[in-house]
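Write out this protein's structure.
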Amino acid sequence: FAKTGEGISMNTAIHVVVDVSGSMSGHRVAIAAQAALTAAIALAAYDEVALAISVFPGNGLVKDFDQTWRKALPNFALRGDGGTPMTEAMVRAGSALAQRDEHRKIMILVTDGDPNNVASARAVARMLPK
């Protein structure tokens, strides 16, 4: 009883990385947090999409891939402070995505400005698979 067919498979891991540096404090970080939460709620409808949300600076994991948005809800109270270590954030998110089994891997970077080290951030961005 073999059966074949064609269809569309989402099979996607998405990692949203949110800048919570000092320049994002106030309304900017509130908008970024709302956007990340909205993405989590919207993508929860798709069984084949795994979503993680993290913040930088720091190693803050707002929502893990296997965590529901409802359980992660308290983590969305973000505040802005510190510098913009974007390179390190992209490396961490890229590493987390590389460990996933999903066919498609997407990193979304939410920021308002320049990284602490523009050259290294560009180098990491070039190294990430397209």
